[in-house]
Write a structure and sequence with these properties.
single chain; mainly alpha; 2 domains; 3 helices
């Protein structure tokens, strides 16, 4: 490869960064559009939606159910994670906390009887 056609790490990094920027921009635009549609669905009365020939949409009760469920999962996930970790760790008085496959166990020595 001639010296004029070599690529440097900076060139590759710029290409990857541009791809990340595009993905972030598209995600931002889609999230804004979905938020706008959600807010319109929540605040616009059913009669107005039906007058605009929008008849296929979920019940308004889902406007509260879905966000509250997501908030509940957001709060419950760390608690469940901590609980599962607590169950997977051996108890404090278990020999597994001080003995593993690399431990060298000293063999008992014979003790001379005392008189």
């Amino acid at each position: 490869m001639p010296a004029s056609q070599t690529t440097t790490n900076e060139d590759v990094f710029v290409v990857n960064e541009s791809s990340r920027e595009n993905c972030g921009f598209v995600s931002h635009v889609l999230l804004c559009l979905l938020s706008l549609v959600y807010l319109l669905w929540v605040w616009v009365p059913d009669e107005t939606l039906q007058a605009a020939d929008i008849t296929y949409y979920p019940e308004k009760s889902w406007a509260i159910t879905v966000p509250m469920t997501l908030i509940g999962l957001f709060v419950a996930t760390p608690v469940a994670y901590a609980f599962v970790n607590t169950l997977s760790v051996p108890s404090v008085d278990s020999m597994d906390t001080i003995v593993d496959k690399y431990t060298r166990i000293q063999k008992p020595q014979a003790v001379a009887p005392t008189r």
